[in-house]
Design a protein that fits this description.
Blueprint (H helix, E strand, L loop, with lengths): L11 E8 L5 H15 L3 E8 L3 H14 L4 E5 L3 E2 L4 H6 L6 E5 L11 E4 L5 E3 L7 E4 L1 E2 L3 E5 H4 L14 H13 L3 E8 L1 E3 L4 E2 L4 H10 L23 H11 L5 E7 L5 H10 L5 E4 L12 H10 L3 E4 L12 H17 L8 E3 L3 H4 L6 H6 L3 E3 L8 E3 L10 E5 L2 H8 L7 E6 L7 H16 L4 E3 L1 H8 L1
Parallel strand pairs: 1-2, 1-3, 5-11, 14-15, 14-21, 14-22, 15-16, 17-18, 20-21
Antiparallel strand pairs: 3-10, 4-12, 5-10, 6-7, 6-9, 8-11, 12-13, 18-19
The chain binds zinc ion.
């Protein structure tokens, strides 16, 4: 294959700015400052796309960069804080297919975003040391310089969601089709804006320690629109202590939910009632009355007599590949209307993602789904992320979800922490046999009577955080 030298041309660097959410002031000022500094040193072009889904935004920005004659494209995400020498350092490796700064995930356990393939073809964390430029199989995309002369050698579209995410797929195409290099430059430390702090490579140990040792009151979670107190240094233990004192320590919350309108859940609903526990049942109206599924009379009993919440799991039980974003919203709204028509109004707007965000591949649909729901229950994030209607609550690692397996639930109940929410959910009774379920209810009742936990429905969570 012909070796290309990008240096034959004077570099023209497109600065790609995909933005689909609000940009916080700290990021805004940082981006203005660093881009102003870069413009004195390099020929740059700003290329921004607001409000587009990320894969499409990256594709469109890339093609705009190519049509404007850019030799390179630097993608900057709107939750990244950048050092001003970043572009100079990245351009030292301008002949590589891609080179990224060092960034960590913004939620616990804050892993580096860089991967290598193991011998079985699975991605493993690359575990990059400090102050080196190393080759990896896949890097981050939000602080990353792409060599467009090399990218042009690949088939379009450049960004696709295939076996992996769009960023990983592009890296693998560069490696497999061009035999080219993907680099991470760990001299470049990127700040990743999280809910309560900016996650920097140098702060990881402190943040992990704080997570493991401290109790963070749920009620002190800052809405996303009010993160003006975000600083580069993490909050001290003293700050957290003061918050706890001020707000009072909340008991651990246990929340039980049931999906897919399985017939077995009728007896669970009755069992819950016997212990005066309110459950949340996420249903698909299209499945009501089918074999092995709940019928309307049973749902009436569960709601009217046993006081459970009947909530939205979409009209049909499908994942994102089966529906457009418009069809998804229509399906959610149709289900909400059905809930209202049947006087299950408490569950209207409470939405559980079929298969979770990962299994159902909902990630790119989330901005629209968030706009059309009050609260989203997502079971497939590693530690259970929880959104509400205006995207203002993110429990991050204070909400843990455990599905179906009562053994795990018993283990969890021995280790519960204040100010954490534990979501136990049940799809069916594959692992949860009746005597075990009964035992679980007894245990919950015992802990509640001893004042050690609170048991809430998902509707209670919305009220508590509204
Ligand atoms: Zn389901």
């Amino acid at each position: 294959m012909e070796k290309l030298k990008a240096t034959e041309k004077e570099p023209l660097i497109g600065i790609g700015l995909p933005i689909c959410d609000m940009v916080i002031p700290t990021v805004y000022y940082n981006h203005l400052a660093v881009i102003a500094a870069w413009s004195t040193q390099f020929k740059i072009e700003l290329i921004g796309i607001p409000g587009m889904k990320i894969t499409r935004a990256r594709e469109t920005i890339t093609r705009m960069g190519m049509s404007r004659g850019c030799t390179h494209l630097l993608f900057i995400d709107s939750d990244h804080i950048l050092p001003s020498n970043m572009l100079t350092l990245l351009m030292q490796n301008q002949d590589a297919a891609m080179v990224s700064g060092l960034i960590h995930k913004k939620i616990y356990p804050y892993e580096q975003v860089a991967f290598v393939l193991d011998k079985d073809g699975s991605l493993q964390d690359a575990l990059i040391p400090e102050n080196v430029v190393v080759e990896v199989d896949s890097c981050a995309m939000g602080c990353t310089l792409i060599n467009l002369e090399k990218l042009k050698l690949l088939n379009r579209p450049y960004f696709t969601n295939g076996h992996f995410r769009h960023d990983i797929n592009l890296c693998l195409k560069f490696k497999n089709e061009l035999g080219d290099r993907i680099l991470v430059d760990s001299r470049i430390h990127i700040g990743h804006v999280g809910m309560r702090e900016i996650v920097y490579p140098k702060n990881i140990d402190i943040l992990r320690k704080r997570h493991d040792e401290t109790v963070v009151p749920t009620t002190s979670v800052r809405p996303l629109g009010e993160v003006s107190d975000i600083t580069a240094s993490p909050m001290t233990e003293k700050d957290v202590d003061a918050d706890i004192k001020e707000l009072g320590v909340n008991k651990p919350v246990i929340c039980l939910s049931f999906d897919d309108c399985c017939l077995s859940q009728y007896k669970y609903g009755r069992g819950l009632k016997a212990y005066d526990i309110v459950g949340t049942f996420f249903i698909n109206p299209s499945m009501i009355g089918l074999a092995d599924h709940l019928n309307i009379a049973q749902l009436r009993m569960m709601h009217d007599e046993w006081n459970h919440i009947i909530a939205n799991h979409m009209w049909e039980h499908v994942g994102a590949p089966s529906l457009s974003v418009e069809e998804t919203i229509e399906s959610i709204k149709k289900t909400d209307t059905w809930l209202l028509d049947n006087k299950f109004e408490e569950g209207c707007g409470l939405f559980a993602l079929p298969y979770g965000s990962v299994g159902g591949r909902w990630n790119e649909y989330m901005p629209e789904i968030i706009k059309n729901t009050k609260l989203i229950r997502d079971v497939s994030n590693y530690d259970g992320v929880h959104y509400n209607g205006d995207n203002s609550i993110d429990y991050n690692n204070r909400l843990y979800a455990f599905g179906d397996d009562t053994d795990v639930m018993f283990k969890i109940l021995d280790k519960i922490k204040n100010d954490h929410i534990y979501l136990f959910y049940f799809h069916n009774d594959q692992k949860t046999f009746d005597p075990e379920f009964e035992r679980l209810l007894e245990k919950l009742d015992e802990l509640r009577t001893a004042g050690k936990i609170e048991i809430k429905s998902i509707a209670d969570l919305v009220q508590a955080t509204a």
